[in-house]
Specification:
159 residues; alpha+beta; elongated; 19% strand; 40% helix; 4-stranded antiparallel sheet
Length: 159
Amino acid sequence: MPSSERIDSTDARLLLALAAQPRATTVALAEASGLSRNTVQARLNALDRSGAVDSFERRVDPVALGYPLTAFVTTQVAQRRLDEVAQALAAIPEVLQVHGLTGDTDLLVHVVATDAEDLYDVAGRILGIPGVERTSTALVMRQLVDYRIAPLLRRAAGR
């Protein structure tokens, strides 16, 4: 979403209502946010077009698909091959996200696996990508704070 198209307090109220009831109809969202149905529909369309609303994929738990292990693989990459490495990582189904970082580590790769042997295989596929120089894998023991956006939405809504 371009920085010039920031979410205002009305959008934030609407998104809080949507976060509380993801399957709500436009009418239900209008009632919950105190907006008209037409305003809700127009704002949802604009948020969708701008990229402010993420995909449905984020709500699917990998555990339900048989991937109970989560890990982060820090990756050092030959800089001239960064785009090539990113494309190769995107081709690995167990790779959920890749973040480019500053500092000694170039990439933080969020992966899932079915078990320890599968994690070993996934980490090996990452290390085998041409341009990857070194990796280090950290297994997630438990998640202490789930992904959340509601506190920032409440702040943006002025609540």
